Please model this.
Amino acid sequence: MLSVNHIVKQYASHRALDDVSLTVEQGKIFGLLGPNGAGKTSLIRIITQITAPDSGEVIFNGKRLNSDHIAQIGYLPEERGLYKKMEIGEQVLYLAKLKGLSTAEATKRIKYWFEKLEMGSWWNKKVEDLSKGMQQKVQFVATVMHTPELIILDEPFSGFDPVNADIIKNEILELNRQGSTFIFSTHRMESVEELCDHIALIHQSKKILDGSVEAIKQEYRNNTYWVEYEGTLQPAETPFDIRETEQHKNMTRIKVQLKPGQTANELLSVLLPQVAIHRLDEVIPTMNDIFIEKVKQKN
Amino acid sequence: MNKILLIIQREYLSRVKKKSFIVMTLLTPIIIAGFYGVAIYFSIQGISGTSNKIAVVSENKTLLEKLPSSKNRNYQYVDQSLKEMKSSLKNGSYDYVLYLPDFDLNHPEGIQLLGNKQAGLTLSSKISDDIEELIRNQKLKTSGIAQEELDKLKTSVDIDTKKISDTGKEEDSSAGASTIIAYVSGILMFMFIMLYGVQVMRGVIEEKTNRIIEVMISSVKPFQLMMGKIIGIALVGLTQFVLWIVLTASISTVAMKMLVNDKDLKESAMQASVQAKKMPSAQVAAANTPGIGNIQKSLANLELTKIISVFIFFFIGGYLFYSALYAAIGSAVDSETETQQFMFPVMMPLLFGYILSLSVITNDPYGPMAFWLSIIPFTSPIAMMVRLPYGVPDWQLMLSMGLMVIGFVGTVWVASRIYRVGILMYGKKASFKEMIKWFAYKN
Model:
């Protein structure tokens, strides 16, 4: 539904985005990752039409991005806030009307969301009377209440306690099931693994990794296994790299890296005659590992 | 367009509903009316009220006449010595004791005014006027001029100023009326621009520090947000001003009715003019009192509709011109404490225009300084309003208004370019160099 083609954005002496292209498919949750200052926010600001690219284009549902699309995009920025002196209900209503909803429609939807997220009694409260977590909830509602096709969330979980973070996560998944597409920018890799279908990694203004979470994880497997056993293993007779060894009473745990072409079956056939195997797991790299490895590589 | 209206609505309502707005709007007229009420009350009381009983101890042998008593100065000649009178001051039978020693008429020295309390400036100068007149009359008499001749010498002069208009018609004009209008409109203009221009800046800084700005501009264009804020606050300002004027007028009318009845007022005006005729030397009274009628007449003669419409034009034009600059400043900083270095250069021309208008233009409303100040958009809102009551050629007015329009379109354009970049810059120390760079950014 959204494709970003060869975007370049230059600030005075600093190139924020250098020929970045990516495609977000309808109904997916797309993770936009990258260390601080990589250019994520610059890219999001171009998609939300806050700034324009120097060159390149953004295509939204087959059309070049234009001001008609504003109502179809919901954006929760990382730097977010509310008018402190305004009442919550009035404030969300204002933001919804700016997105093009009528007063009646907006009121109906706010009521629905406030009910759903247990915020019913907040309507007449002032923002300054709410805790930070409560304010985040209000902002989340303001972002999604005009049921945009594309919802962009920048660090949506910062400031939430685990209970509320879970509530918001479930709302994201439900909206996703109902057809909303998400772009999700974060540093918290565990939430990426839980939520995202597809990721792109931006580092130093360039895209350095792009693909489905499944495929990337597969690609970054390096034939490493955890083995737990009882008994004694003769290291001389094992033709594998043992990377780590841990001893718990009479249980031993080793991390083994196989050579290219070798399989888990071969590993087992070597081990079986020697020790009693309790467990064998393949080490699948976490997104966190991949992220760190990729970024370090580039530096 | 619809979005700008929404923004205007929010900016307007959120301010008008504030407690501080309501309190300020209600309190200011009460304070102003109270202030005027007290001033009027005392000025009337001052003329007709407190009478000072003054015992005169005269050892003078050349002064044949006695000091004539008047409403608040009751002179009573006593035959006691100064020493005796000092003690009678203490028991309160007199307010003051005036001692006239035996002086030479050409060198009146040693005159003393004693009292339990310090005599006010007005009272002591009135008394010295009385003595001066007495001495002058004495001198004139000794030089052989008859009393009738003396009476004839007292004339009160009241200049009736008329301006020949372009059509050759004589119009009543009054430097007094023009000056009053010039001052009032100059001050109002300055206050409005300062007060509400700064509010625009505060509003922008608030949005930035609250971090709502990025949420907002993913829905609206920065230009819409800026203009919405500027217009919304202008309406707040106009609302407050209109309320102030209406409330002040009604409160003062009611208060006037309660404090003084019409008879008192007429009486005091009569008295003032009688006194003025009696004492040609009392300059202030002579200049003011007979003029009041003239000022009222000329106020009616000044083209009030023209003045009001031009006032509204420059009110809005000047406000737009400056508030756009204030918006740009607000967008460039993270907190109000950082605004100082930018505020100064923006305030300078305004302050400069204000001071020069009220000093130079009111003295020389047709000079080159008046012309240039009222043409250049930085100072024209104030300077033109100050000049207008004295009469400004149409072509100059047109030129000034035209430049004002170009001026505010220009500042709004420049400011919006700085604003759109500035509002997204957090924690960056802004400088003029930086702002020029922002101005040059493409979208």
In short: The CA atoms of residues 31 and 349 of chain B lie 31 Å apart. Chain B touches chain A at residues 3, 6-7, 10, 14, 18, 206-207, 210-212, 214-220, 424, 426, 437, 442-443 (CB under 8 Å).
